[in-house]
Amino acid sequence: MRCRILLAVFAVVASAQFARADSPSVTAALSNSETMVGQTVDLQIKVTGPGDAQPPEEISINGLEIHATGQSRQFEMRNFATSSSVTYTYTVLPLRAGRFTIPPQTVHAGGRVLRTPELVLNVADSPSQPTTTRPSRGAQSQAAAARDLVFAELIVPKKTAYVGEIVPVQIRMGFDPRLRPSLIEPPEITGQGFTSQKLQQSGQTSETVNGRPYEVVTYKSAIAAARAGKFEIGPVKAKAQVIVPRRRPPPRTRSRSPFDLFDLDDPFSDPFFSNPFAQIGERRDVEIRSEQVQLDVKPLPPNAPPSFSGAIGNFAMATDAKPKSVQAGDPITVTT
Fold first, then answer.
1. Pairwise CA distance, residues 243 & 133, whole Å
2. By C-alpha distance, which of 197, 195, 192, 149 is closest to 171?
3. Contact assessment for residue 120 and residue 100, using Cβ atoms and an 8 Å cutoff
4. Domains of the chain and any CATH numbers
5. What whole-number distance in Å separates Cα of residue 290 and Cα of residue 293?
6. What pTM, to 2 d.p., does this model score?
7. Rounded (10°) CA dihedral 115, 120, 126, 128
8. Mean pLDDT across the stretch 307-332?
9. pLDDT by residue (tens digit) across 258-278?
């Protein structure tokens, strides 16, 4: 009799824990509450509870373009209680400056009607180009010569894509090793109407390009367009500090580097690089830019199935559970 009572109490407690775990809730957040015209931010709606959530298909706000771009799911088990959550991601593209209010959105989950919190997005005008003091002719020639010894290249393997499709991109940055470069502003993919993932350095190699040696650093990223149309991706911009010989009156005779054989005006013909103790070099800032790349973005085909959530492309799904070895009552986190 006592055993049956204990089992009944255990069943009641376990069912209560599972019921609490299944109670749905919703929250929403912007990746950044401040941005500029043409620069996108992410809106994420997270639903915790049953897996039958129905997020808003369209969010219409005058002055903003908002498109669904994907979703992710997570499961967790702790002390017999299971919980799951789904995060729905939307891309928000500001079309004009101002203060925008994203009203509460309706989400259906677990037979209940949930409302997201109200969000505010402040959008500023795109900044104008700053005015700078014009450098001297000697400084200009040095900077130009140094720029000839660095390069940036943006590689987009696809010429056409659909709205929301994740397109992988690659950035290559090359430096003549004699410049002894120091990157002070990391590479950035500029442009409007698309989002880009955080850059990740994927490798560094030594290459010879047009007869000159370069140390080439490769970065990987991905972009996704927020609307249909023809886009100019890039240019990639970066800033580095390099060492160059300090200018002095030209000597009567001057040694030439191998790169000056064809009248390339190589700055490293200066004796400084053959004898570093002959004079003091100085560091200069060099801006690095790549060429732009064209990308034609098409609208999504009509009559999408009801289950379509905005994800486009080739995807791989992996499920993992941690820890691998547990005892009765230990929590297990399952990530998909």
1. 21
2. 197
3. yes
4. 2-126+304-335 (2.60.40.10), 137-248+264-296 (2.60.40)
5. 9
6. 0.51
7. -170
8. 79
9. 445 444 455 555 454 544 434
